[in-house]
Structure formats: C-alpha cells, structure tokens
Amino acid sequence: MKRFKILMAALFTSVICFSVNAQVKKNSSSNAKPTTPVSNNNTKTPATATPAMSVTVKKDVSNAATIRVKITTDSGIMIVKLYDSTPLHRDNFVKLVKEGFYDSLLFHRIIPGFMIQGGDPTSKNAPAGVMLGSGGGNMERIPAEFKSDIIHKRGALCAARDGNPQKASSACQFYIVQGRPLSEIELNNYDGSRQVKYTPAQKAIYKSQGGTPMLDMNYTVFGEVESGMEVIDKIANAPRNPQDRPNVDIHMHMEIIK
C-alpha cells in the first residue's frame, strides 16, 4: 500500500514532466519507483479535447485493428496493431509513421517492470548523456480516447502526456508497457482506491501477463504489441543512466504493414 500511495501521488501531481527536476530520483535497483509516462510540453489542447471519463471498467478488452506497424529497433523487431476504437490516436500515429517522423528517434526512457518510451523528436542525433523527453511541444495534443474495455496490459501501446487537465495526449511521444504480474490483493487495492472495477477476465490478464493498472483511464491506450514481446524486455532491462536514458542508444524505424 505504501508503494501504491507513492505512485498515485506522482500520477495526480499538478505539474508532471520528464525533466530531471520533476522526476523522483531513481537507481537501477529493484526498489526504484517508476514515475508516470508523460511528456513535458506546453502545447495547447485543441478545443475538442474531452475531459476524463469514468474510471469504471465494464467489460473485457476489445482490440479490433485494421492497421499494423513494424517497429525495427537496435534490439529487435516488434509488430504492433492500432486499435480501431481509438481512431484519433490511430490516424495520428499512422500519419507520423508515413512521414518518417519516428525514423532514427530513440527509446529515450526505460524503466524495468514499468515501460519503455520514445517519440521525442529531439532524440534524433542527440549527444550522449543529454536528458530527453521534452520534444514535440510545437505539435497539437490529441484529445483523450479513454475506453473502459482497454487496459494497460503488458505490451499495450499508449500515448504519453503532460499534466493538462483534459488528459490529452502528446502528439508524438508514446510508451509500451512492460509491467509485471500483480496479485489479487494489489488489484483489489486499485479497485478500492480508484473505484476501478475490473472484470474477472481483466484481472486474469493482469495476474498472468502483467501490466500497469495505475494508468488505466488516465492515459490513452491505442494499440498493442502482437509479436516481439521479448524486445520490450531487452530494451527495458538495458543499462541506463539516472535519468532513465539507455547508456547505449536504441534507435527505431517504423513502417506500415498489412
């Protein structure tokens, strides 16, 4: 419960960013406490941005998809599918992939047992050791598309964001959940503290596959990894510096596939 309270306090802090001044200092030990996967920018939210929806989870995950993306990294290849039920995020991601926006960018932030993050345009050709994560501030945020039937299970593809009240997403930064398996007691704690009511099927996913339930209905999940889960583990467990940037750059290249 102590760990849970620390994580939730970080999640709902009024100003959340990737800068070293806003992060909880961590080390590579198993006691390191993850912070939330957010981007540090001051981009205005479009007028159509929607407020946070109810956090009550009503049914099992729905993951119908018609578009898939191949993500080639220095650590291997992942195939992700983009959910049709989150069309704003899907279409924005497809647009950026087709434009080559992500090519040569880095996975600039990794936290074992939590997630891997990329999509900061300033990470391209970034000098070694430079803190990253604030890029993309000149791009318009994407309105939140929270879905009660989509959870932060292992392999979930999600949009980072800053602390804007509408919880609108960064237009370019994303993260992929590594997570860890949770116990029934931990899931019940989330149920009680945030009024989240998971179905038996969703609890089974979190207990067997793992994930990061503290982020449900707070960050938009818009896809999932179909193959290459081992690549997530390899990237997440790479040596990193105190700001969670990998010591050796991990590049990405993306393309739309059928």
How many beta strands in the DSSP annotation? Answer: 8
**Unreliable residue runs:** 1-33, 42-61
Which percent range describes the beta-strand content?
A: 15-25%
Q: Mean pLDDT score, rounded?
A: 82
Quick one: overall form? globular
- Structural category: alpha+beta
Give the biggest sheet: 8 strands, antiparallel
**CA-based gyration radius:** 17 Å
Tally the helices. 5
Explain briefly what this protein structure is.
The protein is 19% helix and 18% strand.
Fold and architecture overview:
There is one protein chain. The protein is an alpha+beta fold and 258 residues long. The protein contains five helices and eight strands; from the N terminus they run αββαββββααβαβ. An eight-stranded antiparallel sheet has the order 3-4-6-5-7-2-1-8. The model is unreliable at 1-33 and 42-61 (pLDDT under 50).
Could you outline the blueprint of secondary structure elements for this entry?
Layout: H1 2-11, E1 65-73, E2 76-83, H2 87-98, E3 107-111, E4 115-118, E5 156-159, E6 174-177, H3 184-194, H4 200-208, E7 221-227, H5 229-236, E8 252-257
Antiparallel strand pairs: 1-2, 1-8, 2-7, 3-4, 4-6, 5-6, 5-7
